[in-house]
Amino acid sequence: CAPSCTPTVLANLVGGHSCASRIDWLQSTPGGGLTELAACAKVVDEFPIGCSGCAPLSRVAPASPPSPPTLASPPSPPTPPFTMALYERLNCYRYHGAVSAGDSGISAGSVADCTAICKAHTGCEGFVSTRPGRTFGCWLIRDIVLAKCERDGDYDVYAAPAPSPPPGPPPQPPRPLPSPFPPPPPPMPPMP
């Protein structure tokens, strides 16, 4: 794989497995017996966000012919998109609105990479990233309380939006206010 395929990139989790374990499996006999370069290329093609640093310098053909197609399983129902809300010039960290949800810094090249890594990381609710104009870096966070985070011109926070609360009971009609006047006297009985 390319020199940019660092141990940090190899450790990135994509779809529940690290880039390294996916490359190793593709090189095994059950995985197809691909060469290292072919395995790297295939992993990058299938997981461009989390494993892009492992793109080989030149693409090569697989060492063995492709396996015959297998019967496809029925498609899974679509999952809602994983989105992040941007909170500019904000920094959340331990004792300041969040706690770490992973390693102390992720090797990623963009906000999209960090979003994909957060989505794949159990417990991640968002991340802190450096602002444009600085060397890019991001840190996964959880237990986010934005009101306790610090204003900081060097960082931005991306957080998964909070789920909408379930609908409550319908509003009750207003009760009539008591009259400020005393009630009228009862009617007079008829005279004999």
Describe, in short, the structure shown.
Helices cover about 20% and strands about 15% of the residues.
Total beta-strand segments = 9
* Mean pLDDT, all residues: 78
Main β-sheet: number of strands, strand sense, barrel status? Answer: 5 strands, antiparallel
- Rg is 29 Å
Class computed from helices, strands and strand pairing: alpha+beta
Written overview of the protein:
The protein is an alpha+beta fold and 192 residues long. It is 20% helix and 15% strand. It contains five helices and nine strands. It has helices at residues 7-11, 19-27, 36-46, 48-51, 111-120, and strands at 13-14, 17-18, 85-87, 90-91, 99-100, 126-130, 138-142, 150-151, 155-159. The chain has a five-stranded antiparallel beta sheet with strand order 3-9-6-7-5, covered by helices on one side. Strands 1-2 form a two-stranded antiparallel ribbon. The protein is elongated and about 120 Å long. Residues 58-64 have low confidence and may be disordered.
